[in-house]
Amino acid sequence: MVEYQNAMSSKGASAYVGCSEASLRLWRSKGQGPRYFRAGKLVRYRKTDLDSWIEARLNEPERKGDGS
Fold it and tell me: What's the farthest any 2 CA atoms get from each other in the chain?
């Protein structure tokens, strides 16, 4: 319950993940982007869902040959 009370608005979530609110809105309309929920008409994001979404998009750096 406390996790939902600390949920972020679209503005806060966009700042947290480093994208625009418009990007979050577009992703929601396409069924993409981080998980969210609605509190009445308000869209809210849990920090744990944003962290999971970011983690799922991390790329491992390519390993370069050691020259041998």
Answer: 61
* Residue 38 belongs to some domain of the structure: yes
Range of the domain at 8: 2-56
Q: For residue 60, what pLDDT band results from cuts at 50, 70 and 90?
A: confident
**Distance in angstroms (rounded) separating the CA atoms of residues 25 and 30:** 9
In a domain, 42, yes or no: yes
Token pair of 31, please? 């069924």
What is the pTM for the complete model shown?
Answer: 0.79
CB-based contacts of 38, cutoff 8 Å, min separation 6: 44
Two structure tokens written together for 64 = 């370069």
